[in-house]
Design a protein that fits this description.
The protein is built from three helices and 13 strands. A hairpin with a 4-residue loop joins strand 4 and strand 5. The strands form three sheets. Strands 1-3-2-6-5-4 form a six-stranded mixed barrel. It has a four-stranded mixed sheet with strand order 10-7-9-12, with no helix packed on it. The longest helix is centred in the first third of the chain and has 9 residues. About 3% of the residues have low confidence. With 202 residues, the chain is mainly beta.
Length: 202
């Protein structure tokens, strides 16, 4: 996965709710850069830039560069973030330094492709049981998503974790028998009981 995206950050010396409110009024949000056996660094970043990364195809699995003015430049990932529960605006983000030569674990979204035979021809229902798969790989090999082709699936058939086609160097960390998606038959609803006949008034 490319880390060609770069964002700027500024060091912040003050912490606490008061300082955080002041930072947000100025159009920034507080953030913390940590990990890779280095001391954490408190910074401020542009919330619009961070939101753009979170809404990209790779989402929070995106590896990008953070350039701290007057300080370090590191490859990072967004590992945690807080939003305003009412307005949905970003309030704070945690950025974890990533060592590009060290294997890591991440959860990757599953994307279903095609229309299942069991749905199109047999009238079944496609049920996606697993929406994320945890994998282990080098940071540069993190897939944006895992495609699952369901075109050939008939009623009663499924795709399991062991069936997934992953790039070389990407290893799934879940049970190979874990169902990812399957096609199920539509359950016929039981016929409603006949309503009791209305009594004839004398």
């Amino acid at each position: 996965m490319s880390n060609s995206i770069s964002i700027e950050a500024e060091l912040r010396s003050q912490t606490g709710k008061g300082a955080a409110h002041k930072i947000r009024r100025e159009g920034k949000i507080p953030a913390t850069v940590y990990g890779a056996h280095q001391d954490p660094v408190n910074v401020t970043v542009d919330p619009k830039t961070v939101a753009g990364i979170l809404h990209s195809e790779a989402g929070h699995n995106t590896i990008f560069q953070v350039q701290v003015r007057g300080g370090e430049t590191s490859s990072v990932m967004i590992v945690d973030w807080q939003r305003d529960p009412v307005k949905g605006k970003l309030l704070h983000v945690d950025l974890k330094r990533i060592a590009m030569n060290e294997v890591m674990r991440v959860k990757v979204p599953v994307v279903v492709r095609g229309e299942a035979y069991g749905v199109k021809t047999q009238g079944g229902i496609l049920d996606q049981v697993t929406r994320e798969v945890e994998v282990e790989c080098l940071p540069a090999s993190i897939p944006e998503h895992i495609d699952v082709d369901v075109t050939e699936l008939a009623i009663g058939q499924n795709v399991r974790a062991g069936d997934l086609k992953l790039a070389e160097g990407v290893r799934p960390l879940m049970d190979a028998d874990r169902v990812i998606v399957h096609v199920i038959a539509v359950k016929e609803s039981a016929p409603a009981e006949a309503a009791p006949a209305e009594e004839v008034k004398k």
